Structure formats: C-alpha cells, structure tokens
Amino acid sequence: MTGVNEVQVVAAHQERATLRVGDMFLKVDADQVRADIEVAAMTSAPIPTPRILWRNPPVLALGALPGAPLGCLGQPSTASRAAWTAAGATVRTLHDAPLPPAPGRSPEQTAALLDSECAWILEREILPAELVARNRRIAESALRPWKPVFIHGDLHIENDTVTGVIDWSEAASGDAHFDLATLTLGHRSHLEDVLSGYAIPVDRTRIHAWWSLRSLLGIRWLIEHGFDPATPGCEVDVLKVQAGWGDSGRGGVRG
Length: 255
Description:
Organism: Nocardia acididurans
Protein name: Aminoglycoside phosphotransferase family protein
Oligomer: single chain
Pfam families: APH
CATH superfamily of the domain at 66-242: Aminoglycoside phosphotransferase (APH), C-terminal lobe
Structural class: alpha+beta
Largest sheet: 5 strands, antiparallel
Domain Aminoglycoside phosphotransferase: 38-184
Number of strands: 7
Helix content: 40-55%
C-alpha cells in the first residue's frame, strides 16, 4: 500500500485485534469459527456493511465505511436526532431479515450466565451487593422468552455510522430489544429517536432491563481483558444510573 503514514490500533485484547491501515481495516481473530460467523452475517445482512476485501486466516480485511459514528464512548453524542432515527430504521430492517445461522443464547442460558457473573462480582467485592441486587432485579424482565430475530449483537454507537454498521462478530438470532438497548445504553435520551425510526411498538421496560443485564455481563470480561468498567461513562456508571444512584440525564454513559 502506498500513501499510508500510520497504522491505527482500533481495538486490541487477548481475543482479537482490529487495525486500521489507510482505508482498510484488518481484523486479527484467532477464533476462526467467530470469524466465519462474522463473514456470514455481513454477507446476509440486508443493510450496508463493510466490503470484504480479502481473507487470509487469522486476518480478515475490510473496507472502511464512509460517515462518522453516532458518538464516542463516555461522551455526549453530537449526531443529529435524524441520524439516530435513521439508525433505528436500519435496525428494524436487520430485525426483519431471515435468521442468521448462529443461534445465540436462549433466555435460560442468559439467566444462568447472569447468575454466574453476579456471583463473580460479589465474591470479589467489585461492586456493592445492593447495586448488583437492584440491577439483577431490573434485568429479570429481559429473561422472558422472546421471538428470535437477526440481531447484530454488539450494536454500540461506535459500530453504527450514518451509512452502515461494522463489527459483526457477535451476530446471531436473539431478542430485538437487546440491539435497541445496546445502541441506546449510553445515550438513553435518544431512545425515542431510535424507536421513531424503528416504527413498531416495543417493550421499553425490556430495553431498560437489557441495559442492566448487558452491563452486569460485561464487568468480568472487561476486567479480564485489561479494561476498567469503572471508567467514567462505562458499565459501573450505567448500573448506578439504573439503580437510581447517578444522573439519569447524563448523555455519555455507555455499557
């Protein structure tokens, strides 16, 4: 490649890394099953996704999508309400598509995982027991049976641009409310904008439940992969807001 002045590390941890080289993203993933799922999801998704340039395991090369993300983690979004509404319409299009090959977790599997993650947090005294208990109660509404749809599985604001959606490694069949919650977790003030674009009735209580559930499930993974869930605007802040311990109007909280 010519005209490339630097290599940008977009994300890196023990499981995988993403590098940006010019207008190309290089995803290095030792788990080829997960990489297969990502390629299959991008191929079948009925919405704009990165173009697959080439694949030479463990590396997957993707073209960059134009446009800017809806926001940055831990900071207020500068995107317009129209952009958030368009994101909601895009998510609806995805959820209306035929199911992808990956089955995703069942409600029973999710409940068992939540129990084990809460126990891990409490045993190590990472969070106050009352904070965990309050969010565990809120999360229960997300564990009711759901009608599976094609979900992105990691639809936080940095994966959603005005023109398309990136990072499909967690794509599977699952609860539509999970994607809506993940997209709006750090920017709950834009929930109504997203739902305006989504254009069909949803259970807002279930979205709130996924905010708590996703945050509780993320604590151990973040710590074990070298991230701090207590960084301002991250998972611990989300749990505090959910429990009424923080400022529910804070625009930069994410999960």
